[in-house]
Design brief:
The protein is of the alpha+beta class and 311 residues long. The chain contains eleven helices and nine strands. A hairpin with a 7-residue loop joins strand 2 and strand 3. Helix 10 packs antiparallel against helix 11. It is globular. About 10% of the residues have low confidence.
Length: 311
């Protein structure tokens, strides 16, 4: 009896240790919700970092989905996700009256069985216990990833309670085998319903054509760029990059950023200092939609070619 109690105590201590250590928690979100998470001038994401003592990363990507990475202990991460769902919910209320929230967590493929259970008993238990929709998608994310997606949709508080229980189960089932994180730049739009991705409802640059013009644009010689001559409303968009990548985008004596400005026709400003409390620089891009799209493509291309950003 004493031996069994000791074994159980040891297992509980190991699970508690896993919950309390700072690890990456990864989520798949639609790109349209990125603005609600970042906030104007990066204020919302900065406030989340300070409030919950978490590191939050969300690399910009020209696809309909992004990976949100939150590093912290489990309790802080769950509280952070709760606030993020609230921000997204409030943003959606401007266009819809739905009271539903959804989170799609990324898990290693070897952990899916523990969440599904024998005869799907555990996933059914999640649904009934928390009164939400729960789905574990059958395929891994594209690009050779070993990550699968579990979707939880319902009342925000019920979703968070279910997510808490999901992580409690995963604490006892560490990943087995290689772990290859999903990179949304490999998005192809063909099997989103199988892996839990988001449909491409708009024109996006394709990352599977990373070193030429964006798909849909013909090649032009002689320095002529048709994007500079297109009309459209002038708008501004803001993205963030880790400070260590700023030099890649600026280039020697500003050569790279000058080239991007010239080729895209967009106005591009990179803050000289990181946003307070973060290691991220804010990039402000102004122009018509085509100019902004081209500028983002060229900036991402510069980073990919550097080999320094592999997420």
């Amino acid at each position: 009896m004493g031996s069994n109690r000791t074994t159980n105590d040891d297992q509980q201590q190991q699970q508690d240790a896993r919950r309390n250590r700072k690890v990456d928690y990864r989520f798949l979100i639609p790109s349209r919700d990125a603005g609600a998470i970042i906030g104007k001038g990066g204020k919302t994401i900065q406030d989340l970092r300070l409030k919950h003592h978490c590191q939050i990363q969300m690399a910009d990507c020209e696809s309909p989905e992004r990976v949100l990475i939150i590093n912290g202990d489990q309790k802080d991460v769950l509280n952070c996700i709760s606030d993020i769902l609230l921000s997204i919910y409030e943003n959606h209320q401007r266009s819809t009256k739905s009271d539903q929230s959804e989170i799609r967590a990324l898990i290693h493929q070897s952990q899916a069985g523990a969440l599904i259970g024998k005869g799907a008993s555990r996933v059914k238990e999640f649904r009934e216990k928390h009164n939400i929709d729960v789905k574990i998608y059958p395929q891994c994310c594209p690009g050779g990833s070993t990550e699968r997606c579990i979707s939880m949709r319902g009342n925000k508080d019920d979703v968070i309670r279910c997510l808490t229980e999901v992580y409690s189960v995963l604490d006892g089932v560490p990943p087995r085998g290689p772990y290859r994180c999903y990179d949304p730049s490999t998005y192809n739009g063909f099997n989103v319903s199988d892996y839990g991705g988001y449909a491409d409802n708009h024109q996006h640059l394709r990352a599977n054509n990373p070193y030429g013009q964006p798909q849909g644009y013909p090649q032009y010689g002689g320095g002529y760029n048709p994007l500079l001559h297109q009309n459209g409303p002038v708008t501004t968009t803001q993205v963030t990059i880790p400070t260590e990548l700023a030099g890649i985008i600026i280039g020697a004596k500003g050569a790279k950023i000058s080239q991007v400005r010239q080729e895209s026709g967009a106005s591009i400003k990179i803050d000289s200092e990181p946003m307070p409390g973060t290691n991220d620089r804010l990039i402000t891009i102004t122009g018509n939609p085509s100019q902004i799209q081209q500028a983002q493509f060229l900036l991402q291309q510069a980073v990919r070619q550097s080999g320094l950003w592999n997420r």
